[in-house]
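Hi support team,

I'm opening this ticket because the web form for multi-chain structure prediction keeps timing out on my end. I have pasted the exact lines I submitted so you can reproduce it. The total is 598 residues across two entries, so I didn't expect it to be a heavy job. Is there a limit I'm missing, or should I split the entries? Thanks in advance, R.K.
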Amino acid sequence: MSVLVVGSVALDTVKTPFGEAREVLGGSATFFGVSASFFSHVNLVAVVGTDFPEQHIDFLRSRDIDTRGLKRVEGQTFRWEGYYEYDLNEAHTSDTRLNVFQDFEPDIPDEYRRSEFVFLANIDPELQRSVLEQVERPRLVVCDTMNFWIENKREQLKRTMAGVDVMMLNEAEARELAEEPNLVMAARKIMSMGPRRVIIKKGEHGVLMFCDSGYFVLPGFPLESVFDPTGAGDSFGGGFLGSLAGAGSLDEPDIRKSVVYGSVLASFNVESFSCERLKDLTMEDIECRYQDFLRITRF
Amino acid sequence: MSVLVVGSVALDTVKTPFGEAREVLGGSATFFGVSASFFSHVNLVAVVGTDFPEQHIDFLRSRDIDTRGLKRVEGQTFRWEGYYEYDLNEAHTSDTRLNVFQDFEPDIPDEYRRSEFVFLANIDPELQRSVLEQVERPRLVVCDTMNFWIENKREQLKRTMAGVDVMMLNEAEARELAEEPNLVMAARKIMSMGPRRVIIKKGEHGVLMFCDSGYFVLPGFPLESVFDPTGAGDSFGGGFLGSLAGAGSLDEPDIRKSVVYGSVLASFNVESFSCERLKDLTMEDIECRYQDFLRITRF
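Hello R.K., no limit was hit. The queue was backed up. Here is the completed structure from your submission:
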């Protein structure tokens, strides 16, 4: 089964207390796609400028990611510049240049329209809805968002959410969207807006997943070295949806397993800048950390 | 088997966004003792003043807590006054009056000296050491502390830690004691100071436990209403050590189970002011939440 991701492909400049990386491969669709590609075929829709290095596209293709939906248009690629202090949970943006991403209008290639699993990465909720209008009855739609859309396009976001199966947010976004400080109550309120499931990402503190029949709580994987948290949320999404698509099942045990695989991918991704750590990662590494997760959480 | 706790019995005045409680029963030895009493006999050593209400002592006794070590001396009982804002993870102290606690010198009654499980609640590390000198080869010693002792009595604290099996701290304390921001590395450094185990309490985000053979991670129990976090850490300690003493075993599976019981007790304790919620709590409630914990963490 295949996974469709619609989001950004970007060039990131990131500074952390441990080092700096300039103009490296980034963007939500990148982190998601590379992570999902360990489990499933990935269809990617995004836009880059004429300056985007061909080698990055070669890398994506090498991961069995279909890039027919990756448009190259006149202009500069989306650039994000940010930094982290010792509290690696909080990203500080120093510069955002949307460039060609400003006029991004997702155009889903015919070959992608039957993708069974869809990830709407963090883009304008109106564009997310236009994606849903172009795909044919996917089995599962997962939607990410951010504070900017919650604050500036709340009604549009709510309209999009009505067509979404799983809403994925971080703690602060969940509280802001629901206007409710308690996460359990916030999740319930978000489910009342449409999605049957809510996944709340808590960074190093793990993940909460809520649905009608109860919830699932997974702690973060304790890491000795967290190098760069950029892309952790999207790597989580990629591991989650990729492994679900790979399993081809939406049973509760498979959904829980996929949350663990999402956390495994995110835990690897933060161990280096960009998606460097994912480049030499093997399925054996992934299975090994999955087993570690089992071992350290069992009682 | 019995558990010895040496710490404070206090009168707390607490304000949270949800209400206020004046001069209610508090103190580390109280929260620990009441929580541990669900699983084991408890020997309590602390001091109160002449103003301390007899009804509180009756309550402790009603919980099978031996209060022969609770001294009543001339003067006022230790009082703590604090408040929480919406971030319930952080306590703000507005007033601390040590009163009779200022001159507290733990005098362990003969009947307590063979307690097999010892909890050194957060008091001066020199006093903690004097407790260890008075007990006869306990099977397990657990030690709590706080930033004040880490900053002002670091060397004394390290001497105490050399005789301790399990060090129990919150995240910030672990980082400060180890002078290391990464929790995995901090735990390793703390273990090199003596304790064979380190338990790091992360409030709503759960618990990390480290030992030579690996670690155990338990997420926090997702609660719909957190009313007052005062005493959560000590309730955790009481549930942990009480259930270990109850089981009479120091096997790894039993230690992990006890971490879960500790979290269960803490999760109940924060549902009301003081230890009100623990007053009508039953073993059935405890087992039920333990099973919930299993259910929401299994994959």
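A quick check on our side: Chain B has a mean pLDDT of 96. Let us know if the file doesn't open in your viewer.
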